[in-house]
Each structure stands twice: as C-alpha cells, then as structure tokens.
Amino acid sequence: MRVSNLVPTFFRPRTQTKTSAAGPMIAWTHTGQPKWTPRRMASFAEEGFRKNVIAYRCVMHIATAAAAVPFILYDADGNELADHPLLTLLAHPNPLQDGITFLENLHANLQIFGNAYIEAVRPASESAPTELYALRPDRMKVIPGPTGLPEGYQYSVNGQTTTWPADPLTGRSNVLHIKQYHPLDDWYGLAPMEAALQSIDQHNASGAWNQALLNQGARPSGALVYAPKDGPATLSDDQLQRLREEMGQLYQGERNAGRPLILEGGLEWREMSLSPKDMDWLSGRNNAARDIALAFGVPAQLIGVPDAQTYANVEQARMAFYEETVLPQIGKVVAALDRWLCPMYADEPALDFDPDSISALTEKRQTQWNKIQSADFLTTNEKREAAGYGPLPDGDEIEKNKPG
Fold this sequence. Notes:
Elements: H1 23-27, H2 41-50, H3 53-67, E1 71-74, E2 80-81, H4 85-91, H5 99-112, E3 115-121, E4 131-135, E5 140-144, E6 150-157, E7 160-165, E8 175-179, H6 192-195, H7 197-215, E9 222-226, H8 237-250, E10 267-271, H9 281-296, H10 314-341, E11 350-353, H11 362-374, H12 380-387
Antiparallel strand pairs: 1-2, 1-11, 3-4, 3-8, 5-6, 6-7, 9-10
Helix pairs in contact: 3-5, 3-9, 3-10, 7-9
C-alpha cells in the first residue's frame, strides 16, 4: 500500500550544477578548514541526557517511536518492493547493530545534538553501500567548501582523523549529514536539548537542592544558639569542634533523619530556612519538567509529569505526539535517506515509510476511510486512490450507478 495520501512522498530533486550567489560569502572565512562543532555538545549529553530524567525520557520516547515505524520501498513505476538490497541494508546496517538500534541512535542524536551523521561503507565509488554506521556528532567537523556546500567531513577519535570528501557542486559524499534547523549557524543544527537547557538546569538544580537537603539532615537547616545564663557568651574552640563532629555523626544524613536533637545547657535550636512548601519547590520542579517536554514536543502527561493533563486522555496525547513530533521527525530522516542512499543503486528506488503501522493513529485513519467510503460522488478508483491503493479495471464508475 502506498501511503502518499497520508504523508507526502519525498521526491528527489534533479542534480543542480549552478552555485548559490550567497554560498561563497557564507563559506569564505572557513573554506578548506574544519568548522568546529559547538563546544556545548558535551554538556548537552552530560547534563541533559545523562543527568536529567525528563530530557532522557523525552529523547528516548521520540527515538524509540520513530525507529519502530517500518520503511516502504518503491520501484520507478511506483510498485512496492518486498525484497531489495536497500531494505536488507536498513534492516542490518552493520555487524554491531540491527536496524531498530541504528535508527534509535540516529533519532536520539538529532534530539541531543541537533545533528546526525551516517557513514556509508562502499567497496567502490560507484557501488551500493554494504554497511551503514551512525557516527558521534561531537567527533565530527564539517569542512566548508568554496560554493557554500561542504567540501568534506572530518571525524576525530583519540588524535586520529578520518576525512571524507564531498562533491563541491552537489554535496554528494559517503557521509550524510542530517541537521535540525538553526537560525544562526550555516553548518550545524540546533538541538531541542539546547532549547530546553535552561529548564534542564533548573530541574537539575532543584534535584541537587533536594539531595543536599537529605545530606544535611533531611530537613531545612537552622541554627544552634549558645545563650548561657552565666559564664562566657561564646563556646571555646574545643567545644565548637566537638559540637560540629557530633552533629555530623549523629544527626545529619538520611539514616539519622528525625532523630531527636539533645542539647546541653545553654544551647537552643532555632529554625531558620523556609520549608520546601514555602519555597514552592515541587511546583517549580514540575514547571521545569513541563518546559523540557514542551521543547521536545512530547506531551508531558506521557512521561509522567504530575498535573500535566493537557489532553483529554492518553490516547489523544499519543495521537498528538505522533502527528506533531514523530511523523515530522521520521519524514526528515526518510527524505534525507531517500535523496542520499537511493541514487547509489542502479534501479534508483524510492524510500518512504508506513504510518499505517502506527497504532496510535488507527482511530483517525478509520475516520478518514469512513469518510472516503461514504462519498457517493466518487468512483471506486477515486476512492482507492484517496486511500492509497491502485486502480481496478472496472473501477471508473460511481458505485450507485453500476448495473446490478
């Protein structure tokens, strides 16, 4: 079944030999030299993905959902191909990964770094690829060319560098660079992780504050006031040191939470800090979580953020998630793969994907088909075309006017 009626089919443009008038002006300061990747990439992965549960869940929610949608391949006449070397390659891209894991890495890189790179291993320059590898974006550098297109790509690991050339007129290369839109960078994309970084910092800071609270006694700190009825008004150095040691050993930490504080004569405990309720800590943490989910395009109720029910039910939230986030993400990747991979094969097939396999869209798809079926002014073939099927020999008449 061809799905172009549900999701636009991606057509490959003809090869252009003209160059952009703006291209040389974009590239002149960096021509032939690697354009450094944004230095904050490491912090995106560390602070955002590794240390923040909300950002991690958003990235993996998008990556796993997008990677699970199967590809469809068509020949030059628009017929679906059940078997083709390209489908085999996408199902088993390299000895270390299956197709799902490969695509998860690819989609996750786009969410974390705003850039994704794929290397095609080709035994000869004109042959079809035998393996595909998803490369780490933080190790890759784009080499700008004189026309405003990449002249090549450099990948550096442990002081060793590998370079792939690119055609200065068409940009063709054995490395595919997929990037998110960035308004201020001609060579690298802007990650949703970067847009969410301030909220991620707030969320991480609130978690660190809570952890520090637990480490300091599982309650807000206060003050021990020394107010003797007679004698010196201050503690001696030995008394002060002993008091600090005993407080640390006996009353701080989660294991000692709630233990009664026994004070000797002249010492009085006074609460000083605001309580978590007064600071509205939990509300602020949940607001930051919602902002993070918003940046990634994931409904907050799907990742368990409290009081984030912006949709009537989970089914509507999942439908919105697929329509507004997952399908555009898949479309971007499939369009890039179609334009890059398919010309490497002699028959030049066309790559698409199958949204009919997405269970979250079943209800909407059924509604659409019911509307098509009830349209009594359409012929059978017009209905089949609207549903993504090919024509029938006797399908050019309106059904109610058919004899018999």
